[in-house]
Every structure is written in structure tokens, then in C-alpha cells.
Amino acid sequence: MKKSLLAIALLSSFSFTTLANQAGDILVRGGATMISPDSSKAGVALDGTMTPLSISVDDNTQLGLNVVYFFDSNWAVELLAATPFTHDVVLHDPQGVTEAVYGANLDGAILAEVTHLPPTLSALYYFDTGSAFKPYVGAGINYTVFFDEEFTATPASVGFKNLELDSSFGLSFQVGADYELNKNWSVNVSARYIDIGTEATFDLEDPHNVGLAGNGSASIDVDPMVYSIMLGYKF
């Protein structure tokens, strides 16, 4: 009986050792990442004067990638990357300004498409569970760069031109967990908040002589929640 108990204890100890994160471990993950921007709308100004128009940004899902380097069983650093995300920018016109001016109701129309990359560097803290389930919390800094900003065909035809969005620095906070399938493979889920804010600028020309033109702008608090489910491999 004593020998059996000793054997079980040794097996348990061996199992925990193989599952524990160790200094120098590198965990590479890949899977689906969805960016869900703040649902609030950003007001649109023309030559510094607010208009009844507003815009919002929709969700997008892409291939997410990240690499985690462990300093010990608790502390690690993570770099989040992804293939470029492309979002539709939706125009909101509850008072029908565009219909009155252009004869086309653009309320709810896709005004533009923007593409961005949101690399994020975070420090992670893993909680000791003594099991294959390894929850963690993290905090870090994000840099988001926007590119390929383009108005869609209908807004471009009525004079919307030269859309640009400023890059953004902000903080990031996350919770997540790895579930280790064996000493190398694991499944990961995470949710993080990223502070992303950008200033959008554009030109509104007057090709149809309707008397509406100027320099447009909108301060957009993207502030997305980012959800991921990934498969990981530890080296």
C-alpha cells in the first residue's frame, strides 16, 4: 500500500513538472482574433463646425498570432500580431442631410474602408494552479497604424476625398487562459481591451455645386474588445 501511494505521488510530481512553465520556454500561438470596436458614434465636423452626421466602425476577424516568452512559471512577456484588419466605416445620417443635399440617402451606408495593424506588447502573470489549466492576466502597450483608407464609390462620387487616420498609442489589458493538452500543445482563449483613438480627416469637395464643401474631421474612440481563440505550441 505504501509503495502504491509513493508511486502515485511520484507520478503526480512528474506530471506537474512537465506541465509547469519554465524560464526560457517560448509559446507560439495562432488562431482566430476578432476586433470589436466601441459601438459609440463619432461626430463629424466640417471646417470645425459639428454636423448632424456621425460615423461608427464595425467588427472584423483575422488570423491572430502571438509569441510568449517565459521568465519563470509566473511571469512572461507576449507580443501580439495579426494579419491586417479591415473595417467598414458606417455613416449615420438620422436627419437625412445627405438625401436633402445629394438626393441620395446615405444613412447606414458604408462610408469608407480602413485597414490597420495593432501590434501589442504585454507583460503576463500566470497563476499557479498545479494543473493543465493556466489562467493569466496581462497589461501592455499598443501601437496601431492605419493605412489603405478609402471612401467607397457612392461617397466618393459626391465629393468625399483624401481620407486619413492618425496612428495611435494606448494601453492594453487582458485576461486569458491556456489549457495544456500535453507538454507542447495547448489551447488558448483571451479577451483584451485596447485603448485606440484616432483623428480622421478628409476633404469634402463640391463636384455637383450643391454648396457643401470643406475640411472634414472626426475624433474616433475605437477602444475595441479583442477576442481570440488559438492553438499553441511550446518550445
From TrEMBL:
<dbReference type="InterPro" id="IPR005618">
    <property type="entry name" value="OMPW"/>
</dbReference>
<keyword id="KW-0732">Signal</keyword>
<dbReference type="GO" id="GO:0055085">
    <property type="term" value="P:transmembrane transport"/>
</dbReference>
<dbReference type="InterPro" id="IPR011250">
    <property type="entry name" value="OMP/PagP_B-barrel"/>
</dbReference>
<dbReference type="Pfam" id="PF03922">
    <property type="entry name" value="OmpW"/>
</dbReference>
<dbReference type="GO" id="GO:0019867">
    <property type="term" value="C:outer membrane"/>
</dbReference>
<protein>
    <submittedName>
        <fullName>Outer membrane protein OmpW</fullName>
    </submittedName>
</protein>
<feature type="signal peptide">
    <location>
        <begin position="1"/>
        <end position="20"/>
    </location>
</feature>
